[in-house]
Design the sequence.
């Protein structure tokens, strides 16, 4: 395993991490979750990502139970939660958003579900148009000072809102966001590479990127439809299937053009796509999701592919995506 600093902070995260989105509590039950986390930890993964809204809190409860069962030393791993959407199926106004009330109460609930005394990373899952940024920054600052959160950050916030959060924190001597959690992959690049470009040097922001495989699209398994045992075929995720597959055939055509490059390297499309994300020095960690042990093991081997992505290969990739 390789380890990278989370932006300018002193925290070192494994280059590959493990997330519970979509899978935990749906495709993945307790026994499999235990095996997946054990395999990830055995391979040097030290960051496990979660959120209040994942399966309405069930994903956090499942992860917390498994972590307690595995008895990893608490100082050997980091765990996260995210706040905004709420854990309730039909949340009341006070059960969602980024108000001081919900941010602090959601943190306490996440601590209980994950069975830990502090969250290593805590993300504002989206920007809340109904809450002043200064209120959210203040709430996060309170949690950090109480020792309940070690590093706080944002997820899919516009760059200008992140800059505003840093301004507020600086002027009021508060803790500023350390990291962003954006989508980043071969088919979704603009925000990380362009919009956030000023944030890395100016504020030392790190990134914990999600969907390196574009929800499986970059594996090539959806080139000819949606197999029944895949994530996009799961009940309740019709919205994800529409978002991934109904954005035009151009995306699948790009995947087909990338396939020969992976083939020439002697690697799978999944390993190729994950390794490509790690070429970007502003990526602190790439979050993997898996519903099978062999799938996780296979994707963890993407680190072996990274040295092969030299300048010539990167040029081929750019031509294929053009």
Sequence:
């Amino acid at each position: 395993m390789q380890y990278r600093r989370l932006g300018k902070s002193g925290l070192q995260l494994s280059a590959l991490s493990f997330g519970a989105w979509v899978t935990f509590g749906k495709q993945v039950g307790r026994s499999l979750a235990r095996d997946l986390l054990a395999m990830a930890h055995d391979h040097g993964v030290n960051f496990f990502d979660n959120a209040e809204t994942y399966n309405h809190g069930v994903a956090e409860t499942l992860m917390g139970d498994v972590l307690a069962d595995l008895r990893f030393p608490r100082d050997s791993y980091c765990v996260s939660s995210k706040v905004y959407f709420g854990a309730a199926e039909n949340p009341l106004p006070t059960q969602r958003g980024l108000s001081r009330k919900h941010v602090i109460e959601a943190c306490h609930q996440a601590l209980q579900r994950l069975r830990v005394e502090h969250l290593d990373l805590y993300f504002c899952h989206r920007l809340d148009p109904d809450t002043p940024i200064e209120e959210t920054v203040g709430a996060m600052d309170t949690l950090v000072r109480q020792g309940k959160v070690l590093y706080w950050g944002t997820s899919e916030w516009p760059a200008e809102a992140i800059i505003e959060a840093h301004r507020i924190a600086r002027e009021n001597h508060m803790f500023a966001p350390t990291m962003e959690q954006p989508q980043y992959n071969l088919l979704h690049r603009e925000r990380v590479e362009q919009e956030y470009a000023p944030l890395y040097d100016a504020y030392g922001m790190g990134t914990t990127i999600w969907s390196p495989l574009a929800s499986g699209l970059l594996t090539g398994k959806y080139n000819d439809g949606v197999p029944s045992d895949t994530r996009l075929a799961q009940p309740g995720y019709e919205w994800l299937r529409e978002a991934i597959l109904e954005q035009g055939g151009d995306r699948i055509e790009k995947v087909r053009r990338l396939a020969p490059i992976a083939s020439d390297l002697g690697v799978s499309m999944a390993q190729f796509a994950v390794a490509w994300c790690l070429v970007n020095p502003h990526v602190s960690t790439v979050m993997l999701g898996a519903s099978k042990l062999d799938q996780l093991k296979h994707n963890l081997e993407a680190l072996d592919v990274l040295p092969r992505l030299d300048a010539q290969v990167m040029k081929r990739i750019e031509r294929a995506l053009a």
Summary: The chain is about 40% helix and 15% strand. The CA atoms of residues 232 and 261 lie 26 Å apart. The longest helix spans residues 250-265. The mean pLDDT is 94.
